[in-house]
Structures are given as C-alpha cells and as structure tokens.
Amino acid sequence: MSIINVPYGDTERSFEITDRNLLAVFDYPRVGRPTAAAERAAVDRALENPIGAASLGELARGAKRVALLVDDWTRPTPAYKVLPVILEQLREAGCADSDVSIVFAKGMHRELSREEMERKVGRDVVERFEPRNHDPHGNLAELGKSPSGTPVFINRTVVEADLRIAVGSVLAHPVAGFGGGAKIIVPGVAGHDTIHHNHSLCNHPSVTIGRAEDNPVRRDMEDIARMADLNMVVNTILSPQLEIVDAVAGDVVAAHREGVARYCSIYGAEIAEQADVGVVGASPRDATFGHATFALYAGAAMVRPGGSLVLVAPCQDGPGSKEGRLEFREQAANTPEKLMERIKAGEISASGGAFMYVYSRTVNNYRVVLVSDNYSAEEADELGVGYGVTLQDAVDTALASAGADARVSVMPSGGMAVPMAVA
After folding, report:
1. Cβ pair 249, 234 in contact under 8 A
2. Residues 6+ apart with CB under 8 A from 104
3. Looking at the predicted structure, is the pLDDT value of residue 320 above 60?
4. Residues 183-227: pLDDT tens digits?
5. Which domains does the chain have, with CATH numbers?
6. Are 131 and 71 within 8 A, CB to CB?
7. In this structure, what are the phi and psi dihedrals at residue 386, rounded to the nearest 5 degrees?
8. Are strands 11-17 and 2-8 parallel, antiparallel or unpaired?
9. 20 burial class (0-12, 13-18, 19+ CB within 10 angstroms)?
10. Burial class (CB in 10 A: 0-12, 13-18, 19+), 27
11. Residue 35 gets which letter from DSSP?
12. pTM of the full predicted structure?
C-alpha cells in the first residue's frame, strides 16, 4: 500500500492505493528551494550571458524611450525580483526613470489594481514609474499583417519605444506550448483583433501543451514579436513554490528555446505507458477552476482516452457565478469542431474560445472529476464535471468503475508538468 500526497494550496490532500494499481508518480526531485541570493544570482547570470542578443547595457545605450513589459496577475512571475536588476542596468546605461514606461501585458484579461501592481513589481517600482495596464481596444499602432494573415495591432507605447524588454516565465501552456517569449507581445500587448486571429489558429494537431516547434499559434506570435521589434526577453524558470531556480535572457526565440529546454529538464514527465485513471494536482496554478484546467492537459497525456482524470484544486477564488458555470458547461458540451466553427464565425472570441476549445477536446475524451473544498457537488455539476467529496473517494470511485486491475498515474504538481512521450 502506498500513500500519495498531492499539493493543495498551502496544505496537501492524500490517498492510499495498493501498489499493484499504482503505475507512476511524476514528481520533481530535480528542483530544490533556492535562497534569495541564489534567485538574484540566476537573474544576474542570465543578463550577463544573453542568448542570441547583445547585452542589456549595449541595447540600452542611447535609448530615450524604454518600454518594459511585465506579465500580469494570471502569471506567477515574481517580477519584483527581476525588475530591480533590469532597472539598475538601465540606469548604468544612462536611462533615467523618466525614459522608462512599464506596461502590464494583460492581453484580454481584466486590469490590475494598484495593489496587484505592487504585489507584482513592488511598491517602490509602482511609485517611481506609475505602470499602466495595456488596453487591447485603444492606444494601438497598426503594423500590417503577419505571414499567417493576422492583422497586427500592438500597444503604441511599446511600438514607439527605442528599446523593448519583456519579463515573464517559461511555463507549460496548452495553446502556445509554453508561456514566455513572444507571448508577452501576443496576447500580452496586442489588440483584440490580433489576439482573436492568432488564437483562432488553435485547431491544429501541433497546438498542444509542451510543443513550441511547428506550433502555428506560437510561430505566429514569434513572427509578430519580430514585427514589433522586441529586443530582449528575460524569462524565469520557477520552482513549484514559485521561486526562481533559473533564468534566461536574450533573443525572443533563441533565449526562449533555451528556457524551454531547461524547463523540460526539470518538469518533463516521460510517459512510457498510459494509465486508466490519472490524479492531477493543479498546483501551483490553482486559484480558479479555469487556471486549474491547465493541469488537465498535462494529465491527459498519462491516461488512455476514455479514462478518468481526478483534478485536485482548491480554487481559492471560489466557484464564481451560477450563470458563469452554466455557460462554461454549455460551451464545453460543444464538440471541439463545433466550437471552432463558432470561433471562426466570430460568434465566440478566440481569446477565451481557444482555451474552451482545448478544454472541450479533453472533456470529450475523459471523465473529469473535481476535488475542491470551494465547490459543492451541485456547482461542479453546473460546470459539467464530476465531484469527489474527498480525494480518496474520487480515486476509489474511479478505480471501481475502471476495474480491479486498473492502473493509476499521478502528477502531484500538474500545473508545471510537461508530458514527454518515451520513444
């Protein structure tokens, strides 16, 4: 008998399972807890060794308008640990505070409040630079069309700058393959029409979690980042506790790919055999059900089609409104093909529709069961998923349905995992 622990907010949820039913546990012994000095050293090291680009000091020499892009509240990047290093180097290169504009690259997400800005970049930075939220409906400059035919509208402050630097993180992502890199431009500081067209490219077999190469959504993002002349990205790689364990800096594609390789060396889950039941912890991206679904796409790779996925997520922000849950269920009830038809027809914005599309592909192939103290069974049903009163109940029920010889695989921190098939 084995006892398996799954992160759940600041605590854990556990279940027991006989060893003959346990197929695999995909955890991360390859990453430790860095000290604050080690985190700073990782950022310093990245900036001292830019990949495919000149140093920040060289890029900043003579720049009179600097746009510093930062990802938003939906991403765990500890920008308050990164920006002081960048701002120090800009100052050494002769850039005054008045030369620097900080833009929160929020895409179509809601605006950050001042309190959220302070949590993201630090109170001192907010007071010194008065950061602004990107507006996907205004203050845009038109740059033509990308090779994929996407109409390109980018934040005018970014376009008119002499130097553009982006701060984000490499994370597993179900549409772009990975976060980080060019995603800071699209959707980060792009216009609505740009985001819609780009995300509507998601009905392609290469659009999947953990795939950057030959992914048409990612390729279009990178083409547009080139059009916008993004000069440097600084991307962190985080621990499951969201501390900086590594970082890369440099060219929007070359540095990002190096970051992807380092990320996969930590969080790659080599899946040799598919299980009948998967237990997936949404940690550390588990504040809402929407965020938690990112873990499902990694977890789905370890389970045979038709199997069960038990999603463990505290969803601290609560279950949302009944209307929102019912709309979510209605959208997910569509086949992926029908959803894509509606996206292409403009009936559904691709900004959110792309994620509904990949979610629909999952729930149409697996039985999803939610374990969360912040949802009731009725509220989970309104989402269109099953409900486990406890993690043990959910696993036992799934095993009983799958049969006595069923196998179970576990991703305790599925919000970070990248599935990798074994050749």
Report:
1. yes
2. 70, 71, 72, 111, 112, 117, 120, 131, 132, 133, 134
3. yes
4. 999 999 999 999 999 999 998 989 999 999 999 999 999 999 999
5. 2-28+272-421 (3.90.226.30), 36-265 (3.40.50.11440)
6. no
7. -75, 175
8. antiparallel
9. exposed
10. middle
11. -
12. 0.92
